[in-house]
């Protein structure tokens, strides 16, 4: 039964796509997209619409000598390390692995969040 639930969650859990941008992030961002900002071939920031449904744009620093900082691995759909945690407002806390959002165990209503994200 647990394996069946795991398979169902992977079907419901939508994939994000990586969108490369230069100069600045677009004013209107798509949900289910991770925007990666580069300048002269150097990647220095990422942004995404919060997957919880609150529509807040999350800005993530990718420059190693500034804090906080995330590491982006583009292989396999894209992954961010460490987890993303909004400590204010919606309190979303998730891992971004293989181009998908995986909610941490402390998050409520994760199936509903995945379904809302899947619908767009």
Topology, number of strands: 8
| Spatial sequence of strands, sheet with the most strands | 1-2-3-4
What's the order of the H and E elements? HEEEEEEEEH
Strand content: 35-45%
How far from one another are the termini? 28 Å
Please summarize the sheet with the most strands.
4 strands, mixed
- The low-pLDDT segments are none
Percentage of residues in helical conformation: 10-25%
Let me know the average pLDDT: 87
Radius of gyration: 14 Å
- Outline: globular
Secondary structure category: alpha+beta
How many helix segments?
Answer: 2
Please give a structural write-up.
With about 120 residues, the chain is of the alpha+beta class. Helix content is about 20%, strand content about 40%. The protein has helices at about 1-10, 110-120, and strands at about 15-20, 35-40, 40-50, 55-60, 70-75, 80-85, 95, 100-105. The protein has a four-stranded mixed beta sheet with strand order 1-2-3-4, with no helix packed on it. The chain has a four-stranded antiparallel beta sheet with strand order 5-6-7-8, with no helix packed on it. Strand 6 (about 80-85) and strand 7 form a beta hairpin. It is globular, with a radius of gyration of 14 Å. It starts with a helix and ends with a helix.
